[in-house]
């Protein structure tokens, strides 16, 4: 009984500490593949778990073909991000500069895509940076979006 309770508590802690999940908005095919799914570009929506009133839209390529179908393909590093205020902005917890808000694997072993958040308190702006990092080559591919923290008028 104690083991089950401990396992449930650990699982809950891991889920609560995990970065945000993205909701797929849609995909378009970019290259036809005779075997397996086509190459495509997908757009996801992501809400910041520590900041209400901000939504980021992330576009990223997805490799198709046979290797993509079985999960062995390495997706390209290109991605883009656009974040907007969609309601009153409320910062629910202390924000750590460079904190990972969203993460996903882009290959079986070496590549990840991460969205990191910064808070520019001097200018009252949230900054979201998407980086595709590869264990060996570093993090050259990136995109950035800023959200000024403004009063929200309900109409």
TrEMBL record:
GO terms for cellular component: cytosol. This is CreA. Residues 1-17 form the signal peptide. InterPro entries: Uncharacterised_CreA (IPR010292). Keywords: Signal. The keyword Signal applies. It comes from the Bacteria. The lineage of its organism: Bacteria, Pseudomonadati, Pseudomonadota, Alphaproteobacteria, Rhodospirillales. It comes from Roseospira navarrensis. The keyword tRNA processing does not apply.
């Amino acid at each position: 009984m104690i083991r089950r309770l401990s396992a449930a508590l650990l699982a809950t802690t891991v889920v609560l500490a995990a970065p945000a999940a993205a909701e797929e908005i849609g995909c378009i095919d970019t290259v036809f593949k005779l075997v397996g799914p086509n190459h495509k570009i997908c757009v996801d929506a992501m809400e910041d778990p520590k900041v209400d009133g901000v939504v980021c839209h992330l576009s990223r390529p997805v490799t198709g073909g046979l290797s993509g179908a079985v999960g062995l393909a390495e997706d390209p590093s290109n991605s883009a991000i656009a974040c907007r205020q969609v309601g009153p902005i409320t910062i629910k917890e202390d924000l750590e500069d460079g904190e990972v808000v969203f993460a996903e694997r882009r290959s079986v072993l070496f590549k990840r895509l991460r969205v990191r958040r910064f808070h520019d308190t001097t200018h009252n702006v949230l900054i979201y940076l998407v980086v595709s990092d590869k264990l060996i080559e570093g993090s050259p591919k990136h995109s950035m979006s800023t959200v000024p923290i403004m009063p929200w008028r309900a109409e």
